[in-house]
Amino acid sequence: MPADRREAPSLRAVQELLYDLMTAPSGVAQGLAARGLPPDALDAIIAGDERLAAVARLDIYANMYFFRILDVLREEFPRLVATLGNDVFHDLITDYLLAVRPAHPSLREVGARLPGFLATHTRGVERPWLPELAALERTHRELFDSTDAAPLALADLQALTPETFATLKVRLIPAHRLLAHTFEISTVWQGEGEPAPRAETLLAWRQDTAVHHRPLTSGAETAMLRRAVEPTTLAELCETFAGARGQGEEATLAAEAFQVLARWVDDGLLTLA
User: Fold this and answer.
1) ∠174-108-89 over CA atoms, to 5°?
2) pLDDT of 211-230, one tens digit each?
3) Domains assigned to the chain
């Protein structure tokens, strides 16, 4: 073998080099320089010609890489974009991708760590409700792809005898989430400006192919939801409601608990355990 012939780099080494250069903050040429490599270091990997050298060709892919991710995140976080504006959102995502490189091959996961990153970013520190808004938007994405479950129908409940009603075991569908906020994020979602610094718990869930959320205004319903995360009987859910609701006539509390259950069933929140 000639003495000046170099050993070909491994596929892994080539992949790592190209990824590092495509994600370099100042472009491919500066990325090469930061590695102590000459401008022609890519010639053995990427074929250039008189129109575009290897570095320029890879720069095209580097720009495509960033703007494709930016477009995906704009679609996933439309209310965050509307709040910040396009230019500020662009700069936020630039900072995000430099600090938190995508670690999953699917673009679906590229925004998973944005709410946490935003909590420590200047924009999130200045407006501490922004990470909560981003987390709610991310939750909508995650619930859309969450596990399916056959929802319980109201006719199923109405057909039960009192005995079988009490012992029927149910649980919440997997495609649900309880979100505790320090701001009223539901008002921002509706386009009502900056939220009040007031604690709020949201129930988010998917019904068919649509993801919904609503604020929880009843502590008794919240207690029921937390109980229904695990398999439980309808009677135990009613007892949980009565215990959280406090004093009241037994018949009235039972009727109120059934109204909550009926709403859950109408929303497709319950499934058989």
Assistant:
1) 115
2) 999 999 999 999 999 999 99
3) 11-144 (no CATH), 154-272 (3.90.930.50)
